[in-house]
Fold this sequence. Notes:
- This protein is mostly beta strands.
- It is built from no helices and eleven strands.
- The chain has strands at 2-5, 8-11, 16-22, 30-37, 44-49, 56-58, 66-71, 76-81, 90-98, 113-114, 118-123.
- Strands 2, 4, 5, 6, 9, 10 and 11 form a seven-stranded mixed beta sheet that branches.
- It is globular and about 40 Å long.
Amino acid sequence: QLQASGGGVVQAGGSLRLSCAASGFNFDDYALGWFRQAPGKEREGISCISTDDDYTHYTDSVKGRFTISTDSAKNTVYLQMNNLKPEDTAVYYCAAESDFGSTCQSIYYDVDYWGKGTQVTVSS
Length: 124
């Protein structure tokens, strides 16, 4: 019900845009987020957007470089990643949580739907 795409190999300083298409649930009733898991590390939440799109959150490691957005007409959430660094290398996952709150960070602890991951590799 969540299908992520857009990963690939890019040089440091480059950009990628990840997409995640949702189906089977009411997209507008869910907070959405992106997680990543680097080799040998635990999965971590890096960005989320609230149900009404008015609130976004980023972890310090990606703040100022990544931008999360949605297109409700396409039931799709995006993660624009700029100025990529080798430490951004990871498998990236999208997620959704049924949430009617004004913020979104609860998705980092409670996910209703996971997408399959997409690999992002940043070479130095």
